[in-house]
Design goal:
single chain; 381 residues; alpha+beta; Dna Ligase, domain 1; D-amino Acid Aminotransferase, Chain A, domain 1; Rossmann fold; 3 domains; 25% strand
Length: 381
């Protein structure tokens, strides 16, 4: 479960991490009232579960009431990467000199949490990790002992944080780990931590993801779950009983089995595409279930093409083929190109059943993925 920024900041503030003065608003008039109390400049920030809000127009800085009213009217109700903005966080502006990144996540390769600090704050940390990995200092944490104070200081110094604020940054990092552990978080980060002209350290953003399987231990956090703002596709996935995660790309992916779907995601990336989702229909999927999966992926406006990857074990290829036909025959015109790869149990029977007027069929997974990526690129032009 991912908390909204305003919710995560409340958790941070309760733990003693400095955050800007802020108000939550759901109408233009509430925004105007909030800025009159906070003062200018003020940030108006869309509260939706997506990254890159600023680049997408979901964060604006107002310098007077007229701008605050204009920006509130623009942001409230806007479609931001498939999410409708229903609330905004109105926050006092921070006069900063430097931006830092501070976070705790799980390093699955090492089997331990890892603390990360970087002077490259305010930008996509994944891009920093890929393009300039040395810009991120890391310190692994033995969960049996927690984050020792010397480790917090070490990773802060390794990152090159100025000495006059290093102690405050290390304190924030230690508090983040305490929250990570005590709140059953799977990821917790601040990007950016802002260093003001007065050398104060302020959390200008907040990300906190909670392990859903541990929510029974976190009743206060469980109450923060915002059903009204939940992604409609994820709600539909729960209704259908699918394992589904929405991603930011445009190649829709359907498979049977988590490992098979993950392999397909990796291949989409390898061949230059961007996955739009993780969707596992599970083993033994019947025609109706397959049709429901296609309905879900077609409902995602970000999807430009679909790749269907089925390896028959329990799942029978002929049942999958029936489901694909049934789903696609409902349309006068197929909304997105679909590429299908079938292998395993009754795959040959399924290939014969598939209506090739409605889908493209490829013999190998590599060919299917490459074709889907090409379809998505053509549709996106």
């Amino acid at each position: 479960m991912r908390l909204h920024e305003y919710q995560a900041k409340q958790v941070f503030a309760d733990a003693g991490i400095p955050v800007p003065d802020s108000r939550l608003a759901t109408t233009v008039e509430e925004v105007v009232e909030a800025v009159s109390e906070i003062g200018f400049p003020a940030a108006i920030k869309a509260q939706v579960h997506v990254g890159g809000r600023g680049k997408a127009g979901g964060i604006k800085i107002a310098t007077d009431e007229e701008e605050a009213r204009q920006y509130a009217d623009e942001i409230l109700g806007m479609d931001l990467k498939g999410y409708t903005v229903e609330k905004v966080l109105v926050e006092s502006g921070v006069d900063f000199e430097n931006e830092l990144y501070v976070g705790i996540t799980m390093d699955r390769g090492e089997g331990e949490p890892v603390a990360m600090v970087s002077t490259e704050g305010g930008v996509d940390i994944e891009s920093v990790a890929e393009e300039t990995p040395d810009a991120i200092a890391r310190e692994h944490i033995d969960p049996a002992f927690g984050l020792h104070p010397y480790q917090a200081r070490k990773v802060v110094y390794d990152a090159g944080i100025p000495r006059d604020v290093a102690g405050d940054v290390a304190s924030i990092l230690s508090t983040l780990y305490d929250l990570y552990e005590s709140k059953d978080a799977s990821e917790i980060e601040i990007n950016p931590v802002m260093i003001t002209a007065d050398r104060e350290v302020v959390a200008a953003d907040a990300v906190m993801n909670i392990d859903e399987d541990a929510l029974f231990r976190q009743p206060d956090l469980a109450e923060m779950e915002d059903e009204a703002a939940a992604d409609e596709l994820e709600a539909k996935a729960n209704e259908y009983g699918f394992d589904y995660v929405r991603l930011s790309g445009n190649v829709g992916i359907i498979g049977n089995g988590a490992g098979l779907v993950m392999t397909t995601l990796d291949l989409v990336d390898y061949y230059g595409g961007e996955p739009a989702n993780f969707l596992d229909i599970g083993g033994g999927a019947k025609a109706e279930r397959v049709a429901n999966a296609l309905d879900m992926v077609f409902s995602d406006e970000n999807v430009d093409a679909v790749v269907f990857n089925i390896f028959g074990g329990i799942t029978r290829g002929d049942e999958v083929a029936k489901g694909i036909n049934e789903a696609l025959e409902q349309f006068d015109e197929i909304p997105k190109k679909v590429v299908v790869r079938l292998a395993g149990t009754n795959a040959e029977e399924g290939m014969e059943i598939l209506n090739t007027d409605l889908v493209e069929v490829e013999a190998t997974l590599e060919d299917a993925v490459q074709q889907a990526v090409e379809n998505a690129q053509e549709a996106g032009q």
